């Protein structure tokens, strides 16, 4: 049996063979140890098993070697194709006086007189005091005052209607409600059930195991004795759709398989990879665009905060440039954060008041193909008009 298997925690490329024991005549199933995992994507993959005359087996996935093993190695197959020379004697029995206990309870130990096995693990904390302001007469839960009886409620069929319970809001503001009870604390006198300490067992003989005898089914093997391949079967157990198998090839020359893999599988695989990449890029772009839109929506709301009113025109101008010129987005967002933090710290720590001064800003120049609609000659006039006019927010398409 050869091929991928992914189900639950199972994820491996099986290689299982049945080999006939020449001594017993029984067929034994041998599993490849530590098989490779299968790819986790949804692309088409080709799995190859190469059986060599020197007892070597190689597992390839998409033409790349993932596992190499030897049929006659006990390290590579479970159980090994060549049985062990000796086996435990099935008729050997452990002697009745065989003691496997390395430690035993000290027979001379005596429980101390002050050891109280009945002492509880926890006791009431007698030093605890009821917190001041504890609301003894307030229940922890009250009827929901906003709940109303459903119109289709029938008292005869449904019983008397009761409003659902909710947490008492008074309990949230106070130290607690209801009957106050002393908390529990660990009992310093608690020792638990007494048991004698352990000492070395003078009669300890170790863990018993049956003696080994020659394996009657042992045989030596130079090469596996494979049965002829009479048919091919596909075993599928799945709860998913779109699982397909095709192009099953059995050949005596691995070059034939390599050539077939390059001409039938690889072109299909390349097309699938390109399609998957384009879909991932499209999905990623949509997600990124949606995220950017949410960020700008938040920033436009931030610009409307009263304590930023003096800087509103500047922030709106920066936001507009960030949306129309993606290459400036990161720098613009950093600038906005700096402005907000500067104003915030001034509000907290204050600052020396400065006499009003007239600011003349130079127009910013960005390398872009868009027409910005401004020039150096008109910058001063536009600043005067913007200072006199009420703050105007740019209309945004949503």
Describe the structure.
The protein is of the alpha+beta class. It contains six helices and 15 strands. The chain has a four-stranded antiparallel sheet, with no helix packed on it. The chain has a three-stranded antiparallel sheet with strand order 4-5-6, with no helix packed on it. A hairpin with a 2-residue loop joins strand 1 (2-7) and strand 2. The two termini are 58 Å apart. The relative contact order is 0.10.
Feature tags:
three-stranded antiparallel sheet, disordered C terminus, 398 residues, 6 helices, flat, alpha+beta, four-stranded antiparallel sheet
Strand content: 15-25%
Low-confidence stretches: 352-398
Q: Main sheet, how many strands, which sense, barrel? A: 4 strands, antiparallel
Mean pLDDT score? 81
Question: N-to-C terminal Cα separation, in Å?
Answer: 58 Å
The radius of gyration over CA amounts to: 41 Å
Number of strands: 15
What is this structure, in a nutshell?
The protein is α+β, with helices and mostly antiparallel strands. The chain has helices at residues 155-158, 169-173, 254-303, 312-324, 329-349, 379-388; strands at residues 2-7, 10-20, 27-32, 47-51, 56-61, 64-70, 77-78, 86-88, 103-105, 122-124, 141-143, 165-167, 184-186, 198-200, 212-214. The chain is flat.
């Amino acid at each position: 049996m050869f091929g991928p298997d992914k189900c639950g925690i199972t994820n491996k490329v099986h290689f299982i063979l049945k080999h006939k024991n020449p001594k017993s005549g029984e067929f034994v199933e041998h599993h490849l140890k530590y098989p490779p995992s299968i790819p986790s994507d949804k692309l088409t993959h080709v799995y190859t098993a190469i059986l060599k005359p020197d007892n070597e087996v190689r597992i390839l996935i998409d033409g790349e070697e993932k596992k190499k093993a030897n049929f006659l190695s006990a390290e590579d197959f479970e159980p090994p194709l060549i049985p062990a020379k000796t086996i435990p004697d099935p008729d050997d029995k452990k002697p009745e006086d065989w003691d496997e206990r390395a430690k035993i309870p000290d027979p001379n130990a005596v429980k101390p007189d002050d050891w109280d096995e009945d002492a509880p693990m926890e006791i009431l904390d007698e030093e605890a005091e009821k917190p001041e302001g504890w609301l003894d007469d307030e229940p922890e839960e009250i009827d929901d005052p906003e709940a109303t009886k459903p119109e289709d409620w029938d008292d005869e069929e449904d019983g008397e209607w009761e409003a659902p319970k909710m947490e008492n809001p008074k309990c949230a503001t106070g130290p607690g409600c209801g009957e106050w009870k002393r908390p529990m604390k660990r009992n310093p006198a608690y020792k638990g059930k007494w048991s004698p300490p352990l000492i070395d067992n003078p009669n300890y003989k170790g863990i018993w195991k049956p003696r080994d005898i020659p394996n009657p089914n042992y045989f030596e093997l130079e090469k596996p004795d494979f049965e002829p391949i009479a048919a091919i079967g596909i075993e599928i157990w799945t709860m998913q759709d779109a699982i397909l198998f095709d192009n099953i090839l059995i050949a005596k020359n691995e070059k034939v398989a390599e050539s077939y893999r390059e001409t039938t599988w690889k072109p299909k695989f390349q097309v699938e990879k390109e399609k998957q990449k384009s879909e991932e890029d499209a999905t990623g772009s949509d997600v990124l665009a949606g995220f950017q839109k949410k960020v700008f929506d938040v920033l436009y709301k931030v610009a409307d905060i009263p304590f930023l009113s003096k800087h509103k025109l500047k922030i709106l101008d920066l936001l507009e440039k960030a949306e129309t010129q993606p290459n400036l987005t990161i720098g613009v967002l950093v600038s906005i954060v700096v402005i907000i933090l500067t104003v915030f710290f001034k509000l907290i720590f204050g600052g020396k008041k400065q006499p009003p001064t007239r600011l003349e800003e130079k127009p910013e120049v960005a390398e872009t193909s868009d027409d910005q609609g401004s020039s150096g000659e008109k910058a001063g006039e536009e600043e005067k008009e913007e200072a006199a006019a009420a703050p105007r927010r740019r209309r945004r398409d949503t």
